[in-house]
Hints:
2 domains; 9 strands; four-stranded antiparallel β-sheet; alpha+beta; Transposase Inhibitor Protein From Tn5, Chain A, domain 1; five-stranded mixed β-sheet
Amino acid sequence: MRRFRRWLDNEKIEVQTLYGPLMQQALVGWFGKRLSVALDTSMLWNTYGIVRLSVVYRGRAIPLVWCVLAHGSATVAYEVYKELLDKAAKLLPRSCQVVFLADRGFADTQLLGHLKRLGWHFRMRIKSNFWVYRPDRDPFQAGRIGLAPGQARLWHRVWLTGKHCGPVHLAVARP
């Protein structure tokens, strides 16, 4: 752990300065195409958390930007990773369509607003206790939808949570 910490603290290594232009060059070929970007976290020794945005290509996640935190949990607040979104946006070709992917731990109204400002599409799981609002209908919690196994429901132009984040398209399924 000390060796890894020394490497991280080495002032002569400016990873983003080296890696950013390399990634930009690699992404030139994505001009005008759809690009999937995934947000994820990893833990090292239950002491450090890595928050990273990766380009998903052929089933692999290629790191785009990241930060390492002295943090005892894989759960991180929006405030921790919001700058990573802007850094990633600067590296991606402007003309590509970005589809942001994240697990339910990141479902947050501030994040959704940030993604809309960036012009990114998003696909993420939400928690079953999220409230769903439809025009002229009573609100309901996503987990309270009675679905038979193998059944799915789709709603277009709904709003999520009491903050009415949206409109979004919502797909709910039961395996």
